[in-house]
Amino acid sequence: MVAGIVLFAFAMKATLAHVGNELGTIPALGLGGGPALYLFAYVAGRIRVARTLGRGRFVAAVLCASLVPVALGGAGARRARLRRVGRPPRIRADLVARGSARIRALRLPASAS
């Protein structure tokens, strides 16, 4: 149970720190898998102690676990589209910024003459 809480807290911290960015693999796994792990542990504890299976938390755990591929699928689909087009999957922002500065520097003398 504690592992599910910690995993979800880590994923929330990582997600809220980079709100505008694409969701990474580990935070996506933590956002769906953390609550699912907590709920599955709760259901297992209830089965062990009371020997009953409540449907509510078990269904919620299954739904949380089913959201993990959905969260991972959004990032994976975008990467697959980029690969299909032929672009590299990761472009470092500093290289792009330096490259655009170089292009502007090269264009200035050409347009001035």
Structural account:
- The chain is mostly helical.
- The protein has one domain.
- Helices cover 82% and strands 0% of the residues.
- It has helices spanning 2-17, 25-50, 55-85, 93-112.
- The protein starts with a helix and ends with a helix.
Label this structure with key terms.
single chain; mainly alpha; 113 residues; 0% strand; 4 helices
Topology:
Layout: H1 2-17, H2 25-50, H3 55-85, H4 93-112
Helix pairs in contact: 1-2, 2-3
Tally of structural domains: 1
Tell me the overall shape: elongated
- Structural class, by secondary structure, is mainly alpha
Q: In total, how many beta strands?
A: 0
Separation of termini? Answer: 70 Å
Number of helices: 4
Major sheet: size, sense and barrel closure? none
Order of helices and strands: HHHH
Mean pLDDT rating: 76
What portion of residues is helical?
over 70%
Radius of gyration: 23 Å
Low-confidence stretches: none
> Beta-strand level of the residues, as a percent range?
under 5%
Task: Give a quick rundown of the structure.
By secondary structure, the protein is mainly alpha-helical. It has helices at 2-17, 25-50, 55-85, 93-112.
